[in-house]
Amino acid sequence: MLQLKQGCRAVTTDVCVPISRLAECVVETEQDLKTSPLPCPIVGHVGDGNFHVAILIDPNKPEKLVEAERLNHRIVQRALRMDGTCTGEHGVGLHKMAFLLEEHGDVAVDTMRSIKHAPDPPI
Length: 123
Known about the structure:
Elements lengths: L8 E8 L5 H13 L7 E4 L4 E8 L4 H20 L15 H8 L1 H12 L6
Antiparallel strand pairs: 1-3, 2-3
């Protein structure tokens, strides 16, 4: 995918939706991506409802990252609206923490954090 645009970097995202909503989610996402000037290939192993979008940006143009973040936000919001999740397999790092809070709420995230810290205490 990186060969589609010389010198680009990929902002990757993934979401997961119930398999019954997958086609709808991919079609709407594809329509949304077509409105962007950025190349945005979609790939996935969709048998589990999970797909990925690689948003290709020029790392020397900050406005391209702003557009990539806008697209990512729309993709995640769409998945959540379809009873999906903000990530299908890559886990939740700093980049998706706000979405995890939106998806599950403060109490659930605090509980998850407590469980994680039990065997892996913070330094």
